[in-house]
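can u do me a favor
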């Protein structure tokens, strides 16, 4: 348990703890809210949620990261501007109330080790650890798919971020040494073996340490553009999502849509194909094909979807120049991180070169994390 626990709640007696992982996405970016395919992996950085029922008639919660305490009851379940960290917990309680009724009040201790704002999905790990923890603790028997879905609804409805399902899904279903192929339309999924150690590679995440102010707005604009493109296409085609475009329909989209909608659609169409090709080659042990899919994905996010930034583009270019096997931006973009597969033999030297060149160009160092894969949400 964490350092302040006893100071806050007196004793650890009776608390149960749960943790959910952050993620990096291998490929399939900005496709989940178009009901396409994604291929994330869960990482060994976690969000921890400890809880114990109380008799106080209120939820009492402490965040170690913010060194902050808060109490609330059911009548206070409204977005809290002063303490943004509490909204994810409130959002999940609110969604659980809708499907299971009011759960008893509890004390909670929160701790996250996933860097916030790095594009590694710390908020989804927070939501999923809380949703799963509450379900287990109070024997609510909420199915795992519903854990992911209600966590996404908490983020969409309460926190107000219009994210897709990828992050909550991988935090729930991730598995060590595998990547998770998710069909975000049907929510079917498959664990694809992804053993980078056997390929003598390391997983390096490089955090640009920037979050451009356009991030939130840019993300919702991309969603809106997708919806607009879909509406225009529906006048000619019988489709419910961009994911359903076949080759002929795609060609038509490129003829009739104005810019930038046709570029957005081109990204989604090709990115979905790249995910499936990537998975196919992974299954057939054709690792030599993977770097190109990842680079094409990055370039498409840069040129067609326009969600990269100078820092991300620079990092990908340098990563490859200094010998990475593969590299691309990962997550929502407009800052955040790149994912890199780097040969073990050069990892230290590679880290040094990336750090120096990034600092020289932007005036500060990036954060570099060497990560392992991990399992999805569970009790600790
Ligand atoms: C963010 C969102 F939360 C995901 O749902 C996904 O859309 C991703 O950006 C882009 O692929 O992480």
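np, heres the sequence
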């Amino acid at each position: 348990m964490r350092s302040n626990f006893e100071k806050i709640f007196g004793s650890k007696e009776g608390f149960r703890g749960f943790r959910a992982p952050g993620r990096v996405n291998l490929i399939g970016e900005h496709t989940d809210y178009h009901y396409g395919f994604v291929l994330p992996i869960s990482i060994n950085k976690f969000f921890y949620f400890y809880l114990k029922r109380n008799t106080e008639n209120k939820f009492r919660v402490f965040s170690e990261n913010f060194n902050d305490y808060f109490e609330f009851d059911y009548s206070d379940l409204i977005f809290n501007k002063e303490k943004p960290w509490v909204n994810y917990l409130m959002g999940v309680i609110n969604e659980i109330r809708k499907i299971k009724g009011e759960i008893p009040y509890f004390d909670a201790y929160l701790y996250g080790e996933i860097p916030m704002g790095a594009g590694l999905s710390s908020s989804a790990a927070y939501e999923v650890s809380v949703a799963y923890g509450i379900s287990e603790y109070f024997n609510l028997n909420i199915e795992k798919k519903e854990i992911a879905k209600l966590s996404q609804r908490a983020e969409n409805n309460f926190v107000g971020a219009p994210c897709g399902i990828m992050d909550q899904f991988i935090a729930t279903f991730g598995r060590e040494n595998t990547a998770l192929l998710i069909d975000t339309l049907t929510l079917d999924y498959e664990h694809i073996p992804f053993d980078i150690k056997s390929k003598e590679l390391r997983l390096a995440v490089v955090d640009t340490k920037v979050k451009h102010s356009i991030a939130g707005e840019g993300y919702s604009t991309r969603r809106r553009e997708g919806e607009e493109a879909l509406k225009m296409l529906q006048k000619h085609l019988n489709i419910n999502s961009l994911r359903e475009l076949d080759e002929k329909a795609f060609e038509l989209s490129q003829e009739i849509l104005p810019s930038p909608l046709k570029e957005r659609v081109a990204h989604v169409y090709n990115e979905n194909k790249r995910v499936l090709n990537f998975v196919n080659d992974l299954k057939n042990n054709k690792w030599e094909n993977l770097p190109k899919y990842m680079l094409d994905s990055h370039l498409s996010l840069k040129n067609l979807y326009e969600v990269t930034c100078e820092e991300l583009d620079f990092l990908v270019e340098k990563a490859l120049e200094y010998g990475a096997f593969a590299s691309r931006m990962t997550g929502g973009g407009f800052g955040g991180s790149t994912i890199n597969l780097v040969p073990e033999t050069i990892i230290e030297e590679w880290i040094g070169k990336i750090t120096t060149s990034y600092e020289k160009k932007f005036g500060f160092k990036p954060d570099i994390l060497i990560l392992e894969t991990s399992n999805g949400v569970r009790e600790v």
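The chain has a mean pLDDT of 96. hope that helps!!
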